[in-house]
Amino acid sequence: MSSSAVRVRVARSPRFRDPRPQRRPRYTHRVYTLSTVTLMSIGHALLGLLEAGPRHGYDLKRAFDERFGQDRPLHYGQVYSTMSRLLKNGLVEVDGVESGGGPERKRYAITDAGITDVERWLARPEKPEPYLQSTLYTKVVLALLTGRSAAELLDGQRAEHLRLMRILTDRKRSGDLADQLICDHALFHLEADLRWLELTAARLDQLASEVRA
Amino acid sequence: MIPAGSLLVAEGLRKTFGSTTALDDASFSVHPGEVVAVMGPSGSGKSTLLHCLAGIVRPDAGSVTYAGREITGLSDAERSALRRSDFGFVFQFGQLVPELSCVENVALPLRLGGVKRKEAERTAREWLERLEVGDTARKRPGDVSGGQGQRVAVARALVASPKVVFADEPTGALDTLNGERVMSLLTDTARRQNTAVVLVTHETRVAAYSDREIIVRDGRARDPERVA
What we know:
The complex is a heterodimer of chains A (213) and B (228). Chain A has 2 domains: 39-123, Arc Repressor Mutant, subunit A; 135-212. Helices cover 55% and strands 7% of the residues of chain A. Chain A is built from 8 helices and 3 strands; from the N terminus they run αβααββααααα. Chain A has helices at residues 42-50, 57-69, 76-88, 112-123, 135-145, 150-174, 177-202, 204-212; strands at 55-56, 92-98, 105-110. In chain A, helix 1 (42-50) crosses helix 2 and helix 6 (150-174) runs antiparallel to helix 7 (177-202). The longest helix of chain A has 26 residues, at 177-202. Residues 1-36 of chain A have low confidence and may be disordered. With 228 residues, chain B is of the alpha/beta class. Chain B has one domain: 3-Layer(aba) Sandwich (Rossmann fold). Chain B has 8 helices and 10 strands. Chain B has helices at 46-53, 76-86, 102-112, 117-130, 146-158, 176-192, 204-207, 224-227, and strands spanning 8-17, 20-30, 35-39, 61-66, 69-70, 87-90, 164-168, 196-200, 212-217, 220-222. The longest helix of chain B is centred in the C-terminal third of the chain and has 17 residues, at 176-192. Chain B starts with 7 loop residues before the first strand and ends with a helix. The model of chain B has no long low-confidence stretch (mean pLDDT 91). At the A-B interface, helix 6 and helix 7 of A face helix 7 of B.
C-alpha cells in the first residue's frame, strides 16, 4: 500500500472490545491507521510545527503526538532521524544547543527553504488511490471461479466493515473534535467500500456468467 | 431459536401486496435497550417489516410477539392503543402536525395518554431542551429547519418513555452533520432509558449507530443472531 493510501487502525473501545483472538490485534486486514499523517509526511508535519517557532526535538515529538499521533506516537528515533535529514537538506537549522546534566539538547528552527517546502507540500493535492486491484475484487472472482459462495463472502465482509464502523462511531461519540474528524475520514472510506460490496452483491449473477464464460 | 430476553420477536412473517411479495418468511428480534438496524436495498421489504413489527400492517402469515403477547391477532383498536402506550415513531420527514407548535407536537403522545396540558407541555419542553431545540417550542413545524424538525420528531417519539422506537430512515432528508446529531441524540437517549430502537436505513454510517444489523433481501430477513 502506498504512503498516501487511507489507513485506519482499529480503535480500542471499552464497549466494543473484539473478543476474537488476533495475531496482530492493533490492525485490521487492511492495515488502516487512525493517524492522519503517514510516514512520508512526518517531515512536513514537523516542519509545519516548527513554523510557529523553534523547538527542541522532545517538544516537537510531544506537539506531533498531541495533534496527529493519536494512537500512534512517534518514536524518538524517528524524530531525530527526520530532523537530521531536514538539517542535511537545509530545511531546518540548529538554533541553539543546551548542555546541562543530561545529554545535549538541540533546538531546531525552520529555514526559509523549509517554509517554502511546507507551502509547496500544503498546496499540492494528494493523489487519490483508486484501488483498482483490490483484494476484495480478487476474492469475489476467485470464489466464483472455484464454485464457492461469493454472496456469503460479501456478507461476511460487509459485517466486518460494519463492525469496524461501529467501533469508530463509538470512538467518535466519546472523542474530541480531532477524534471526530479522523474517525469521519475513516468512516467515509469504509462506507465507500460498503457501497461497492452492495453493488457487487447486486451484480453477482452477471459477474458469475462473465467469469465462468 | 428465539433469543432469550427478547422484547419484540417476529417469526415467519409473510406479506404480499397484490402480486408483489414484500415479506417472505422474515424473522426478527430485539432486546430491551438494544438498537437494531434493518438494512437492505430499496424495495427489499425493510419498511414493510417495520410496519408489521409495529402493528401498523397485519402480516398475511407469521407471528409478532411483543413482551410475551402475540399482537397480530389484536383488533385495530387494541393495536392502536399498544402503539400509543408502548411505541414511538420517527419517520423520514418528521410527520409533525403542521397546525400545532413544536412543543404541542411533542406533548401530543402524553396528552393522548391522559396527561394534563400544562404538565404535558412542561415535560415536552424538557425534551426539546434535551434534544437541543428548546428555542423551537413556540414555532410551527413549517418555521423550523429540517434538522430541527427531525429532533422535534425524536423528542415526540421518546417523550412518553416508550419501550420501542421505530425509526424509518430518520436521517434520510438531512445533511450529514444534522443526520449524525439526530442519530447520536436518538440512540444515546434510547439507551439511557432502556428503549429498544428498530432503525430502518440503507445508510451504513447511520447503521453504525446500532448494536447489530439485520439484512433484508427479497423479503427475507437474515438475522445473524438467530442463525448462530
